[in-house]
């Protein structure tokens, strides 16, 4: 059941990089407990949109609100403290640190800050929840690709985020890992989190998302139920024009 007021709202959000308009007047809402797919061809502005929401970048124009409060001007750490957390397309972990230390770093900087033994216990629990129980002592450099992704998600979850921004978290997984990854994201939603999923894996979009927003060249070209938007001729055209379609 959708809540009436959105958790996250974007209104007229625009980002220019010099002469390039990477994100152009984006408007959309994300409802509580919703999994929203943000899709579109390569270079359409999806990661930039996540960067604007998480505060890694500041919009050139427009407003981003979290439960009705504008967060547009806030630095990234303040947005994280308000319960918005993200994974990165290229996993960003500290390879010389252990798995547990990387996850604890998320617990210290996030929404619900924990220290010392409490941070340890919580980080262990997050590792369990992503299927890495008992592997906290390993160095990140010793892990397989899927496991580094799991650590990145555990790091992100360590701050108890209410809104999760997943930037191609499922990319590069084999079919078995993909099934596990989809089940994991579904569980995060069942735990009461709201998720924005930037993803090229359409099976994941179909099986996880309540709705989709489709971007092309920085602009929203479609929004609605997944099967509806994926059969929209403009969306099909946008993807067919893309080398990776
Ligand atoms: N920091 C930056 N400086 C200049 N241009 C940028 C910067 N970040 C992104 N861009 C440009 O903005 C556009 C949108 O990029 P973005 O990474 O948001 O697309 P995307 O939809 O996430 O693509 P992909 O699916 O390939 O990850 C691209 O043309 C990209 O080259």
CATH homologous superfamily assignment of the largest domain: P-loop containing nucleotide triphosphate hydrolases
Q: Give the tally of structural domains.
A: 2
Low-confidence stretches: none
How much of the sequence is in beta strands? Answer: 15-25%
| Text of the CATH class of the largest domain | Alpha Beta
In N-to-C order, the SSE pattern is EEEHEEHEHHHEHEHEEHH
Mind telling me the C-alpha Rg? 18 Å
Domain ABC transporter: 8-242
Keywords: ATP-binding, Nucleotide-binding, Transport
GO cellular component, one term: plasma membrane
GO molecular function, one term: ATP binding
Question: Could you write a compact summary of the structure shown?
Answer:
With 245 residues, the protein is an alpha/beta fold.
């Amino acid at each position: 059941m959708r809540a009436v007021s959105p958790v996250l709202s974007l209104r007229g959000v625009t980002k220019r990089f010099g002469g390039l308009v990477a994100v152009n007047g984006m408007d959309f809402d994300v409802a509580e407990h919703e999994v929203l797919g943000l899709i579109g061809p390569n270079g359409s502005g999806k990661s930039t949109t996540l960067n604007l929401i998480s505060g890694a970048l500041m919009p050139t124009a427009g407003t981003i609100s979290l439960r009705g409060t504008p967060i547009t001007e806030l630095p990234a750490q303040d947005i994280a403290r308000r319960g918005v957390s993200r994974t990165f397309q290229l996993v960003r972990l500290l390879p010389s640190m252990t798995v547990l230390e990387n996850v604890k770093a998320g617990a210290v900087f996030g929404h619900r800050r924990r220290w010392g033994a409490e941070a340890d216990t919580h980080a262990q629990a997050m590792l369990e929840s992503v299927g890495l129980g008992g592997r906290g002592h390993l160095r990140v450099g010793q892990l397989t690709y899927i496991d580094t992704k799991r650590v990145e998600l555990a790091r992100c979850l360590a701050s108890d985020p209410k809104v999760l921004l997943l930037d191609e978290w499922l990319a590069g997984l084999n079919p078995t890992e993909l099934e596990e990854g989809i089940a994991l994201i579904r569980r995060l939603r069942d735990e009461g989190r709201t998720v924005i999923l930037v993803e090229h894996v359409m099976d994941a979009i179909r099986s996880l998302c309540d709705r989709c927003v489709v971007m092309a060249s920085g602009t929203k070209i479609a929004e609605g139920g997944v099967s509806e938007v994926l059969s929209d001729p403009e969306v099909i055209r946008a993807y067919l024009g893309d080398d990776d379609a």
